[in-house]
């Protein structure tokens, strides 16, 4: 009886192959949207690549308008400079991605001062009208996409920043759907 050749590659080789495929944004989208759903093994490999290589570069920008977008009613008396708050990667805890604001805005205002003055409150940040997401740090902001994702923020008294805990797989799926123009959620 002839033996059947084994084409199983060790995990280290699969990770290298998939990492090379993730170097361009188009391939990164395919990696998440097309390769990840193929099997549990591919899903684990792709998620490992994302947690080690891409989540640390993830940024979120929360849009904070003063008026309700549907009614035009004034919700917040004080304006936030640039009407947005940017959050950057801190670390991954299992299925959650922890992100935080920088201690100061691009204009140099401190988060602590804006929070004490009532410019930034938990309610205001939790009701952000949109979340702009991108990978690669500040220089790649223009390559981001608006995503639908509830953000739950908490004030960190020790670091004097706002922190959010987000389900990173849902956030990533929402990003790639927006980027690919899909309306339905990709497989979580």
Automatic annotation (TrEMBL):
Protein name: Uncharacterized protein
Annotated organism of origin: Periconia macrospinosa
Domain of life per record: Eukaryota
